């Protein structure tokens, strides 16, 4: 579990009293504002790694590698490889064409 702070140390006394009318002695999670949330994998770099992997899979596929071969190389199911290919094809078709 993440570190917690004692409400007595971080909240104004009036707010602490108000909260104590609703909850006492239990842990409560206060979420970040929506505009401060970090997407899954952005902090650890996992999202970037998967995006790079998917681009590699699509590139190899367009160069003629079979789905079966890509399954062996990336240790993914046939369904996963096909989903990556479809997703990358859609993303690339949405990208603006450079002239």
Features:
elongated, 55% helix, 5 helices, 99 residues, mainly alpha
Chain-wise SSE layout:
Blueprint (H helix, E strand, L loop, with lengths): L6 H4 L2 H8 L25 H17 L4 H8 L3 H17 L5
Helix pairs in contact: 3-5
Structure characterization notes:
The protein has 99 residues and is mainly alpha-helical. The protein is 55% helix and 0% strand. The protein has helices at residues 7-10, 13-20, 46-62, 67-74, 78-94. Helix 3 (46-62) crosses helix 5. The protein is elongated.
Termini, distance in Å?
A: 51 Å
The residue-averaged pLDDT reads 87
Helix content: 40-55%
The parts where pLDDT drops under 50 for at least 5 residues are none
Instruction: Summarize the helix and strand pattern as letters.
Output: HHHHH
- Helix count from the secondary structure assignment: 5
Any idea what the radius of gyration is? 24 Å
The major sheet is characterized as: none
- Total beta-strand segments: 0
Shape descriptor reads: elongated
Strand content: under 5%
Structural class based on helices, strands and sheet pairing: mainly alpha
Brief characterization of the structure:
With 99 residues, the chain is mainly α. It is built from five helices and no strands.
């Amino acid at each position: 579990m993440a570190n917690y702070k004692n409400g007595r140390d971080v909240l104004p006394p009036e707010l602490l009293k108000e909260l104590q009318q609703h909850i006492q002695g239990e842990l409560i999670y206060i979420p970040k504002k929506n505009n401060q949330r970090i997407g899954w994998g952005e902090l650890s770099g996992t999202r970037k790694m998967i995006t790079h992997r998917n681009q590699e899979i699509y590139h190899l596929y367009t160069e003629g590698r079979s789905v079966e071969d890509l399954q062996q190389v990336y240790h993914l199911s046939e369904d996963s490889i096909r989903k990556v290919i479809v997703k990358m094809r859609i993303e690339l078709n949405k990208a603006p064409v450079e002239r």
